[in-house]
Design brief:
This protein is of the alpha+beta class and 127 residues long. The chain has helices spanning 56-66, 81-86, 101-126; strands spanning 16-18, 21-25, 33-36, 40-42, 46-49.
Length: 127
């Protein structure tokens, strides 16, 4: 909920700063994954996943796929570094067996367009 934002802080010394990445909750809402395009400070209760050159649409696709980890973990079985390093996130692949980032980006752009169009149509209907 709220893209995983819990609160706002004033302290900027000695904190973990991230931006343009995915976070996965290690505790609490275990396995919840969110993409963050903005700079944020994260507690030690999240794992940040970042890869150079990823577009926001690819990150959003991977966050949705990573969110399936919620099914395996719970408050009593939290994600830790050892467990997350063993996880495999299923992604579409190209004909060479490499992650198909182009497909992922295109799929999410299409989904985003459909959802925004639906929302705009609903807003126009309220006028």
């Amino acid at each position: 909920m709220n893209n995983g934002v819990d609160d706002f802080v004033d302290n900027t010394d000695g904190v973990r700063r991230f931006s343009d990445c995915i976070t996965i909750a290690n505790s609490g809402s275990v396995g919840s994954a969110f993409y963050h395009s903005y700079e944020f400070i994260a507690s030690d209760h999240v794992t940040a996943l970042k890869a150079p050159g990823m577009s926001r649409h690819v990150y959003m696709f991977i966050a949705a796929a990573a969110g399936r980890l919620r099914e395996k973990y719970s408050f009593n079985r939290e994600i830790n570094e050892s467990r997350i390093n063993r996880e495999r996130i299923m992604l579409p692949v190209d004909s060479s067996g490499n992650p198909d980032y182009s497909f992922m980006a295109g799929y999410m752009r299409s989904l985003e367009t459909r959802l925004l169009t639906r929302w705009l149509d609903a807003e126009r209907g309220r006028e």
